[in-house]
Amino acid sequence: MIQKQRTSRIVDAAARRKPQRAAKPGRSTGLGRIIIAVYGVLALSATIRALYQMFFRDFSEAALAYSLSLVAGLVYILATLCLASSKPRAWYLSLYAVVFEFVGVLVVGTLSFTHSELFGHDAVWSYFGQGYGYVPLVLPIVGLWWLYRNRDERLSV
Q1: How far is Cα 103 from Cα 91, in angstroms, rounded to an integer?
Q2: What stretches of the chain show up as alpha helix (H) in DSSP?
Q3: What is the rounded distance in angstroms from the CA atom of residue 33 to the CA atom of residue 39?
Q4: What does the pLDDT look like over 123-145, one tens digit per residue?
Q5: pLDDT given for residue 5 in this prediction
Q6: Taking the CB of residue 84, how many other CB atoms lie within 10 A of it?
Q7: Angstrom distance (rounded) from CA 16 to CA 139
């Protein structure tokens, strides 16, 4: 006697379901780790440089440059933490930090050529980041590209 195999509705529904696509890797995998690491190194170097200049040099001789270096360091710290985070809204905060950084590099870089008398010494963003191998100019472009590529993460609120 042949027995008829019985299946449940749940098993049938699971068999008919389409295979799920693999999840897209997040911002902190692959190339994203390298971008985050470069941001981290730049955050440390800019912040430490600014603090050294503010506390161990005469602040009055280049107050604007030293303050801009500290602002740059803090923006790099914020960008590093937000790029590495998978929390909701971190994508937006990363975008704002990187755009602010890019605008800062362009404005301070331009002012350092046109109005060099404003700066007593070079800041991180002076001459478009020349003292840092132009990394401050290139990094926000790469960061914006990376955020654009991973823009779907902003919807995971």
Answers
A1: 18
A2: 9-16, 31-56, 63-84, 90-114, 135-149
A3: 10
A4: 889 999 998 999 999 999 999 99
A5: 62
A6: 19
A7: 47
Residue 1, SS3 per DSSP: coil
Separation CA 44–CA 128 (nearest Å): 19
Q: What is the pLDDT of residue 59?
A: 81
pLDDT at residue 118, as a whole number: 85
What's the pTM value of the predicted model, to 2 decimals? 0.77
Q: Which amino acid is located at 47 in the chain? A: T
The structure tokens 């995998």 sit at: 29
76 closest CA partner among 125, 109, 29, 112 = 125
14/11 Cα distance (integer angstroms): 5
Of the candidates 98, 82, 107, 93, the one whose C-alpha atom is nearest the C-alpha of residue 139 is 98
Burial zone of 151 (CB within 10 Å; 0-12 exposed, 13-18 middle, 19+ buried): exposed
What residues of the chain score a pLDDT lower than 70? 1-8, 10-15, 18-29, 153-157
What is the Rg, in whole angstroms, of the alpha carbon atoms belonging to the chain?
Answer: 24
Q: Which residues contact 69 (CB under 8 A, 6 or more apart)?
A: 46, 49, 50, 53, 123, 124
